[in-house]
Amino acid sequence: MSRTVSTPQSTPESEAALLRRIAAKDRRAFEALYHAYYRRLFAYLFKTIRRPELSEEVLDDVMLAVWTGAAGFDGRSRPSTWIFGIAYHKALKALARQDRHKAETDEVDGEEPMTGEGPEGLLVRRETADVLERALRALSLEQRTVVELTYYHGFAYQEIANIMGCPVNTVKTRMFHARRRLKELLPGLGVSRAV
Amino acid sequence: MKQEDERLHQRVWELLPWYANGTLGDTERRTVEEHAARCERCRKELEACRQLGEAVQTAAVEAPTPHPARLARLMDRLDEADGSPLRARLRGLLTATPKPVRWVLAGQLAALLLLAAPLWTLLRTPPPAEFKTLSDPVTVAAGPQVRVVFADGATERQIRDVLLPIGGQLAGGPSPLGVYTVELPEGRDPLPVVLRHLRSRAEVSFAEPVR
Q1: Nearest Cα to Cα of residue A113 among A105, A122, A104
Q2: Over 60: is that where the pLDDT of A194 sits?
């Protein structure tokens, strides 16, 4: 399994250079970073928010925050860690807004169908993906986020702590519980339940 | 001693997901490798972590490509997001200026731009081009490496038989815990194929790519 956080054209160094240019209000650098991050951010936000339209709106908000806040990127972390930190907090806010809205309108908490409306060519569903998806849904948002950031986005545990704004031990504990729960739900995945 | 072992086991157990995704630092990676080489539970768990990782990657959403209209709308919002939109400020200044003064100002601005144009072209020197000549030395990338622990009692001949089909060569080891570094020829078999081969052999008890 390899890290998926960098596209072939995009490295932490080149991304840091883009952020410096964005801090100087370079719109072309912003466009380049947008293209470099769109798919990763969408994949992450959609998994968290589950509504394609809302995910895209939050993605726009994340990129606007990058535009206004690029000068605050101090280079102590990788650019992807910094950007995903923004995305994590924006996603939490969007979910909280959504919950409030649901409570106000008494909307039934039905999951948005995975296919159907939304950006073109959005999803390809597979049976195994369905099973895993259901299992991941059984985790808490924090546990799921740690699993996704680790296995899909290829972040180190220290980076995940940075993104989620929590101690590294919390990240490890969340993953520990996530693994145990996933083994209960997906016996095919877990080899041994004993630690 | 036993308790210490158990603590180490717990620590390694917690680190396995990040060993599987290749993000551990050197020290922790070595700790995991050395412990896993002699702990079957951790090796099995590592396999489970790897399977989960593969499943998560397979189940990934297929993200759409960004729509140009969406990006255009976002680009339009950049000035607004800055809080002090330049265009809005300019528009404000313009409407606050009496019409005759506006024309005078516009004329002066045009004259300034004309004067500054040659300076602009002078300042805009093209970035240095990257030249590569045919005589430049060609750097050959070293092939990928794999850490391997061979089963107890594996003979030199058996080890050779394991490495021959993948063109692997012993590049280092054994470490005190019996870990060998095997170098693979660049651009031959994909790493997952090599690892599958190694792990399928009874003479190999542990095989992990060096990251």
Answers
A1: A122
A2: no
Arithmetic mean of pLDDT over chain A: 83
Q: Answer whether B45 sits within 8 Å of A191, measured CB to CB.
A: yes
Closest CB to A121: pick one of B51, B57, B64: B64
The answer, yes or no, to whether ipTM is higher than 0.85 is no
Domains of chain A in start order, with CATH, are 10-109 (1.10.1740.10), 119-195 (1.10.10.10)
Q: What is the CB neighbour count within 10 angstroms for residue B207? A: 21
Closest-CA residue in chain A for B24?
A: A156
Q: CB distance B14–A172 less than 8 Å? A: yes
The DSSP output letter for A36 is: H
Shortest alpha-carbon distance between residue B139 and chain A (Å): 20
